[in-house]
Amino acid sequence: SSSYARYGYFSDFRKYYHQTFVSDDELCAGESVTLSAEEIVGATYEWTGPGMFNASTAVIELGPLTLDDAGDYIVSGFAGECPIEPDTLTLVIVPGPDAPLVEYADIWCPGSEITLTGTGSGETWTWTGPSGNLDEDSNTLTVAEPGVYSATNQNGNCISIPTEVNLEFSSAEVVQIADNQVPVCEASDWY
Length: 191
Known about the structure:
The chain is mainly beta. Helix content is 0%, strand content 49%. The protein has strands at 16-17, 20-22, 27-28, 33-37, 46-49, 53-55, 59-62, 71-79, 82-91, 93-94, 101-103, 114-119, 124-129, 132-134, 140-143, 147-155, 158-159, 163-167, 172-177, 180-185. Strands 1-9-8-5-6 form a five-stranded mixed sheet, with no helix packed on it. A hairpin with a 2-residue loop joins β16 and β17 (158-159). The termini are far apart.
């Protein structure tokens, strides 16, 4: 009687796998993100995604993001003639708050203050002015200096697009009243 043994095994040793990464997993509409696949020498990269998205590099930049960019991004390809197992990244994109509406009085005389009032869906507020960031976490800001002011509001990690206003003093005229000269801003009411 003759006997012989046959040995065999199955292995994934020769299989290639893409391993993917995302630069930020808390994404807001309007932000940018980097998607990347671990480099495999001599490999090709074929990305597909929402809205017929496709790319053929190891690293891709997306942005500014919209809600339409949310979904699965899949990378596959070949190393020589060997197919590379695909990997999937799922992007979740949160809508940011709308840009705030900033209102203020039409007439502003030198030496006085003016109050800016922001309305919007944000929970916290940030104001900047001619001298930089202002320490205000309120939807109102009172200023005495002309210049460009900006307001943003924020929900969670998502910040709105800023709204800018350029404040200038109203033009003034000198008016003679009896024996006194009084500066009056254009279009102000007199009684």
